[in-house]
Amino acid sequence: MAYSLRLVMANLALGLAYAGSGQLGLLVPFSGEAVTLVWPPSGIAFAALWCGGPALLPGIMLAAAGLNYLNFGDPLFALAVGVGNGLPALVAWALLRRLRGHRPLFDGVRGLVAFLILPVLLAPMLSASVGILAALAGGTGLGESVASGWTSWWLGDAMGVLLVAPPLILATAPGALSLIRRRWREALALVLAAGLLLWGLSLPQAVWLHEAGRLALFCLTLGAGLRLGLLGTSTYTLLVAAGLTAMTAQRAGPFASDSYHTSFATLLAALAVLAVAGLILATTMATLRRAILSEREARQQAEQALTRLRQTQDDLVQAEKMASLGRLVAGIAHEIATPVGTALSAATRLANDTRGIEQALAGATLRREQMNDYIDGTSLAARILQSNMERAARLIESFKHVAVDRTRQDRRRFDLAGYLEEIVISLRPQTRKTPHAIALTGASRLTVDTYPGAVAQLVTNLVVNAVTHAFPDGRAGRVELDLRGDEQGWVELRISDNGSGIAPDQMHRVFEPFFTTRRDRGGSGLGLYLAYSQVVQKLGGSMSVASTPGQGTCFTARFPAKAPLAATGDLPAPPPPTPIDLAAKRLSA
After folding, report:
1. For the packed helices 57-72 and 2-26, what is the interaxial angle rounded to 10 degrees?
2. For strand 478-485 and strand 29-31, is the pairing parallel, antiparallel, or unpaired?
3. Separation of CA 508 from chain center
4. Where are the beta strands (DSSP E) in 248-331?
5. Which residue has the higher pLDDT, 95 or 249?
6. pTM (whole model) above 0.85
7. How far is residue 471 CA from its own chain's centroid?
8. What's the CA dihedral at 217, 221, 223, 227 to 10 degrees?
9. What is the three-class DSSP state of 524?
10. What is the DSSP letter of 28?
11. 96-135: string of b/e by CB count within 10 Å (b at 16+)?
12. So where are the chain's domains?
């Protein structure tokens, strides 16, 4: 019930608007009594159907029939014209909905072309044909030939759609007034300029001033198209057209001449050019504006996605660091448990033997043989305690240095060769169960001022990667850490193995994050990427890889002995290092 009432009220309001605009159009007849230059109701009819659908068609037809009956008194003519005025709008609406669907009509060049062809050029042919036939049947005067009357009727309806429909349709779009609100000063200035220009052109002027006025109006419309968008341009064009039509009807303005028909024919051509040019320019600007906004939005979304990706990557890298540290802690704990357990057993045995000696002394039953056995057992227990505690202390010291450095990002001065030895010791729990040998060669002492945590992460990841991936057939292998320094203050650390090597098609991807050939076995693909990022970003150096399938792989990290304060990327390639002949040493895993 409420919907029906709203529909009736909408048809009533539409009928009043249609009849009012039609009465204004009839004040400026062009051919006879019923044909005008611009018929605004045709634009109102199409805009109403496009926005509200065929349910508003009764209001259009009844208003058109009533208007023509009141003005010409012929009911058959009025009824035919009423049907003829509603039919073009319905046909244009149906065809455009088929072509455009529910997309906005003026959302690009295709929509504008469809609007200019269907409702502006083709649909008015129906109303012109029905109207001329009704005029001939009812005896209404055309004032000229049938062909001229049909052409005038068609042009009048086409101009009504071209000038009136766009601002009505665009005004119903969401956010239609946002651009005009932002640029209201420019809109007001353009309206005032057009008003002053029209007022000046209404005065008796020379012919050259009329020509200049036409050019000025065209330029103002183009300015509206550049700055005010589609709605502002179409509304501006409608206001200018209304002013020019009123002036020409009074035989004034830039298009007035001695012949009434010539004046309006010239005005018709000028308004058509003005309206089409304004719509084309405004549509082009709107398309460019949407493209710029889409590009900006896409760039923002890409930046946000990149930020989220980097955050996720940082989180995964941090998780990989903590997982690596967790494996180190678990291995060290397991490794320390053996000497501590052995020492505890020896201490327990020593305590039991001591209580036995105390009891023998208290009972005066202590024998020489028993005392000698106690002394021998105590000496053995002391040696066992000493050796196992020294082993545990060494493991704890190595773990303390490496683990603390990997959880902190402090920069300090230290001996890199000795630090590499501590890292290898801390990795022994992870490599003990493998048949591989880990060797340290090159410089026996090399002082650096850099980030030990980054070095520990680099060496740990590369050694564990070699032990895990380089020997898939289970054979015994060798992993070698070769440390060198040159006179230019650069350090070269090579970590090589004699394993299976890397496939040539995978060489360019080894440092990519998340690239792994063992994802089915829990590989994350972050180990080599993390090692690479530590060298490039933290140590301020570069990293490369060389591999021969079946012969092994060599990772080479080059970085300055004194790290830069803020290393953010690859540094220029340093000169080739000068080999230093230093004594080599080896640590077996």
Report:
1. 40
2. unpaired
3. 28
4. none
5. 95
6. no
7. 44
8. 150
9. coil
10. S
11. beeebeeeebbbbeebbebbbebbbebbbbbbbbbbbebb
12. 1-173, 410-589
Whether CATH 1.10.1760.20 fits 1-173: yes
Do residues 498 and 477 make contact, with C-beta atoms less than 8 angstroms apart? yes
Tokens of 540: 């301020």
Q: In angstroms, rounded to a whole number, what is the distance separating the alpha carbons of residues 73 and 65?
A: 10
Query: Tokens 């994350």 — which residue?
Result: 524
Phi, psi of 479 (to 5 degrees): -115, 125
Residues 193-203: pLDDT tens digits?
Answer: 888 888 877 77
Instruction: Find out whether 404 and 373 touch, Cβ atoms under 8 Å.
Output: no
Does residue 424 contact residue 587 with C-beta atoms inside 8 Å? yes
Nearest to 395 by CA among 361, 433, 371, 428: 428
CA angle 109, 115, 116 (to 5 degrees): 90
Helix/strand/coil (H, E, C) string of 133-173?
HHHHHHCCCCCCCHHHHHHHHHHHHHHHHHHHHHHHHHHCC
Q: What is the mean predicted confidence (pLDDT) over 437-455?
A: 89
Helix or strand or coil: residue 558?
strand
Question: Which residue's structure tokens are 């230059």?
Answer: 37
Identify the three-state secondary structure at position 206: coil
- Helix axis angle, 40-52 to 57-72, nearest 10°: 160
DSSP 258-276: S-HHHHHHHHHHHHHHHHH
Q: What's the CA gap between 482 and 556, in Å, rounded?
A: 9
Task: Report yes or no: 536 and 543 within 8 Å, Cβ to Cβ.
Answer: yes
The count of other CB atoms within 10 Å of the CB of residue 266 is: 17
**Which residue has 């076995």 as its token pair?**
521
Query: Which DSSP string corresponds to 476-503?
Result: --EEEEEEEE-TTSEEEEEEEE-SS---
**pLDDT (tens digit per residue) in 148-191:** 778 888 888 898 899 999 999 888 887 778 888 888 888 898 88
Structure tokens at 139: 């005896």
Tell me which CATH homologous superfamily contains domain 410-589: Histidine kinase-like ATPase, C-terminal domain (3.30.565.10)
C-beta atoms surrounding 551 within 10 Å: 12
Q: Which residues contact 26 (CB under 8 A, 6 or more apart)?
A: 33, 34, 36, 71
Fold match, 1-173 / 410-589: no
Q: How far is the C-alpha of 171 from the C-alpha of 181, rounded, in Å?
A: 13
Indicate left, alpha or beta for 251 from its phi (over 0: left) and psi (-120 to 50: alpha): left
